[in-house]
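re the bet — no i am not wrong, look at it urself. input seq straight from the record:
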Amino acid sequence: QVQLVESGGGTVQTGGSLRLSCVASGTIFAINDMAWYRQAPGKQRELVASVSYQGKITYAESVKDRFTISRDNNKRTVFLQMSNLEADDTAVYYCNADYVLTHQQYWGQGTQVTVSS
């Protein structure tokens, strides 16, 4: 079975940094498109950043130039480096995998990021 496990969340002050990690098992990681989503209280879940199996990257406008998504296929891991964090970045962050051959999607359980203001 496919499993995505996020880590790295926590509480940080405004302007600080965190690095989130998501380790995948039970799937051919190299042919999954990977993404990070987040959901803040009272808001809909939104796409934060994505990296395709080919390495193409997209960002939400709100995080562009502050966040960096990357992947390491050997480590079966996708990362989200978050810098210059703001209070509005507070949310539960979810890892998403999309298996490109079938577009079956998988979700992690989420990791809480809290930015104090």
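see?? Residues 70 and 79 are 5 Å apart (CA to CA). told u. also The chain has a mean pLDDT of 97. so pay up
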